[in-house]
Predict the 3D structure of the following.
Amino acid sequence: MPKSTNARSHDSALAGRTALITGASRGIGFAIAHALAGEGCDLVLTGRKLDPVRKAGRELVQHGIRVLAKACDVRDPVSVKALAASIRKQFSRVDILVNNAGIGHTSLPVAKLPYNAWKDVIDTNLNGMFLITREILPLMRRGGAIVNNLSIAATQVFANSSAYNASKHGALGLTNTLREELRAEGIRVIALLPGATDTEIWNTLWPDAPRKKMMSPETIARAVVSALVLPENSTVEELRILPTAGTL
């Protein structure tokens, strides 16, 4: 997408950086993309379906930034490689990677959970994070940051959510490993562990969830930006945010 004619100057520490957000068309992903656009970041927005991602891009380009909207199935190595090639062609680098793409599954005990449901969650939430990170790392440089959206399910478990719990526990292990591997490269790795946030995932996980007690996606996005603007010699390694009501 071309740069908006309504471009304005940005004086944020993040201005001019390029951020890739997966699962960017709605929920926490879109809120983070919107917040980064406000900081003057150029954006790469991805999701499985192109139309919602393009719609998000049309809204965010009004911040006077460059936006690349691409369909990408994070479960598919070929799709992920194509995304990386497009980013390399248009931006040449990625400064901020936000691994946000994730799905849940119907509330069922292990004994009744279909294998296909298990596999789809693991492939999206864990394998997808690995594939995206592996392809994007060659485009990152010192001073960059990776934010992995994990949920508090990465450190505790919820009955009847075995695949979701397992995917997030595994993703936390991957995140912690990445942090140690990338310290010498000067790339920060942040584990984002939000509690109950009012997004569409609850339609699957818990349709009758008390939405009014939940946090907004914008709250999570503000916390992420606050972590990203810290001086490069400091980092938030684990960003846990909960509703004041506690764990719902």
